[in-house]
Amino acid sequence: MTIELPDEAATQRLGEDIAAVIRAGDVLALQGDLGSGKSTLARALIRALADEPDLDVPSPTFTLVQTYGTTPAIAHFDLYRLGHPEELGELGLGEDAQEGAALVEWPERAEGTLPPGTVTLSLSEYGEGRIAALSGEGSFRDRIERSLLARRFLDASGWERATRRRLTADASARTYDVVRKAGREPVLLMNSLPLVLGPVIRDGKAYAEIAHSSRTVHAFVAVDEALAQAGIRVPEIVAQDVANGFLLLEILGSEGILDADGQPIPERYEAAGALLAKIHERDWSPEIHAKAGFTYTIPPYDRDALLIETELLLDWFIPWRDGKPASAELRAAFKAEWNRLITRLEATEQSLVLRDHQSPNTFWLADRQGSDRIALIDFQDALIGPAAYDVASIATDPRVTISEELEAQVVAAYEKARNGSPRFDPESFREACAICAAQRHTKILGIFVRLKLRDGKDGYIAHLPRIRDYLRRALRHPALTDLRALYQREGILS
Question: I want to staple 177 with a disulfide (CB 3.0 to 4.6 A). Which of 164, 271, 394, 480 is the partner?
Answer without folding.
Answer: 164
